Amino acid sequence: MASVEHAFGEARSAVEALHPDLSKRLSEPASEAQIDSFEQETGIRLPDPVRLLYRQANGCNQGDGIFGGWEWIAIEFVGDHVAELQTSLESDRPDEAEAMTLLPLFHSNGDYLCIRHNEDAGKLYYVPHDEPTVEPVFETLAEFFVQFVARIATGELVFKQFSTRHGNYFSVSPPNREYRPPDFELLASAG
Fold first, then answer.
1. Other CB atoms closer than 10 Å to residue 44's CB: what's the count?
2. How far apart, in whole angstroms, are the C-alpha atoms of residue 45 and residue 156?
3. Distance between CA atoms of 25 and 135, rounded to whole angstroms?
4. pLDDT tens digit sequence for 144-177
């Protein structure tokens, strides 16, 4: 099984091969001080795979969903997303106490890919904004990146560059909503 660092490195290489500007959408690595500050402010200890991931890059520049349409949340904004997710889950699913262990890492259109901060494996869970479910979708963070690279290699994900007066941007086809569960189940079983 690939390590988070190796799998993320492969993902970075895959996006660089598509277009050199794509990897520029990744932020500089998070410092130990930034990670420690997050942990002190939230009282949440990041599982080792998540800590290693943020030491590779501190998320994407805000608004860039280069990971198949998913925007990777920078460590300084994770706390805001935790609060938003918990508020949403408390109001929509008050009996789901386990939701309080969710830590969002990626988001898109109100949906999240999360880990449970009380699990050390870095398993990713899908939390849609419009359904009362928390579904496991990848056993590890590394698997998420391995599958991302595989989807690029097979042509399932296509990146297109477009320009506006504000700069150059990228879109991903298909948008992530088109390949969420049940496709996630197929990916998990194929890996």
1. 17
2. 35
3. 28
4. 999 999 988 888 887 777 777 777 666 676 555 4
Interior/surface letters 145-161, b for 16+ CB within 10 angstroms, e for the rest: bbbbbbbbeeeebeeee
Q: Could you give the 3-state DSSP secondary structure of residue 72?
A: strand
Cα atoms found within 13 Å of the Cα of residue 44, Cβ hemisphere only: 23
Written as one letter, the residue type at 179 is Y
96-99-100 Cα angle (round to 5):
115
**Mean per-residue pLDDT over the chain, rounded:** 80
Give the number of C-alpha atoms closer than 13 A to the C-alpha of residue 76, restricted to the C-beta side.
12
Cis peptide before 94 (omega within 30 of 0): no
8 burial type by CB count under 10 A (0-12 exposed, 13-18 middle, 19+ buried): buried
In 3D space, the residue among 178, 189, 36, 185 whose CA is nearest the CA of residue 109 turns out to be 178
Q: Mind giving me the DSSP string for 24-54?
A: TTBPPPPPHHHHHHHHHHH--PPPHHHHHHH
Q: What is the Cα–Cα distance from 54 to 166, expressed in whole angstroms?
A: 28
Consecutive H or E run containing 9: helix 4-18
